[in-house]
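for the recovery benchmark. tokens below, seq after
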């Protein structure tokens, strides 16, 4: 009798194990299919992979992400300054209009905090359904996350002296100069080697009055371009490793802390602070800023190469 019970128990265990294995296999297959669907949804350029350019295109084409420099500066400065100073800040830069650095930094902090609250709200939903149901929400969540990151980046650029980048609402695609500028900004935010010096080189060239057309050429074909390319490659490796490897395991993207509202809230600010730190003490935002020798070399080579093209 005892042996018979043991045999029945063993048979039951095998049946349960087989059922669990079958269910697990189907779940994994479902998530993998959802993962592939997510890759397809995020592949804006149609090359079969997901890179930082795809996320910038999708993010910038999300309603409300593209920032008009003049409208933004007027909205932020009208609370504290007369029209004449605001007009000067729009025409030139806030620094040249006499806006104190303390005020610019304060506005920048408010921008970072506001975008941080918004992005943590959209990412919090990732913790709710789980599994394949969660997988279906991932493309939209990643796009929104990068959308808010790009909103913050544009606002910081304009506060610290950058001219309007080409983000016309009528343009579905971004010109190469704009794309590469945003790639460098994200590179700075995520600590990619070289991105910081390249962005500083851009500020020094713009501060010296280099024409925008020539600057765009330097960013797209000159000495700055290899750094842009390296930054884009870094993001490509990071996304393949963190986003999609983690996707098949947990159906959760891991992009700079995008694993739920709490972690996103914690991770978003340090990324923005890195960009703010780079931009706040340049020739565009502070005429007395210390010039970075390495960035000067990159800028000089970039503009020289652009002039020869």
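predicted aa per position
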């Amino acid at each position: 009798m005892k042996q018979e019970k043991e045999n029945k128990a063993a048979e039951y265990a095998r049946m349960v194990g087989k059922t669990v294995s079958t269910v697990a296999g189907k779940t994994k297959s479902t998530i993998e299919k959802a993962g592939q669907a997510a890759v397809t949804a995020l592949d804006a350029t149609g090359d079969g992979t997901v890179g930082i350019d795809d996320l910038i295109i999708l993010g910038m084409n999300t309603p409300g992400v593209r920032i008009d420099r003049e409208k933004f500066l007027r909205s932020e400065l009208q609370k504290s300054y007369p029209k004449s100073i605001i007009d000067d800040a729009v025409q030139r830069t806030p620094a040249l209009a006499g806006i104190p650095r303390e005020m610019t930094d304060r506005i920048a902090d408010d921008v970072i905090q506001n975008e941080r609250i918004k992005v943590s709200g959209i990412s919090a939903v990732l913790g709710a359904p789980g599994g394949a149901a969660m997988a279906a929400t991932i493309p939209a969540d990643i796009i929104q996350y990068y959308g808010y990151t790009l909103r913050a980046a544009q606002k910081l650029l304009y506060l610290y002296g950058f001219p309007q980048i080409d983000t016309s609402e009528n343009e579905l695609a971004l010109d190469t100069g704009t794309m590469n500028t945003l790639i460098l900004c994200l590179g700075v935010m995520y600590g990619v080697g070289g991105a910081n010096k390249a962005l500083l080189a851009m500020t020094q060239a713009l501060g010296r009055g280099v024409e925008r057309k020539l600057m765009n050429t330097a960013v797209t074909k000159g000495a700055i371009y290899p750094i842009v390319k390296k930054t884009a490659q870094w993001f490509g490796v990071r996304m393949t490793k963190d986003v999609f490897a983690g996707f098949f395991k947990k159906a959760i993207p891991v992009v700079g802390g995008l694993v739920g509202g709490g972690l996103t809230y914690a991770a978003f600010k340090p990324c923005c602070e890195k960009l703010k730190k780079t931009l706040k003490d340049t020739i565009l935002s502070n005429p007395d800023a210390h010039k970075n020798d390495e960035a000067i070399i990159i800028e000089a080579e970039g503009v020289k190469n652009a002039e020869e093209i």
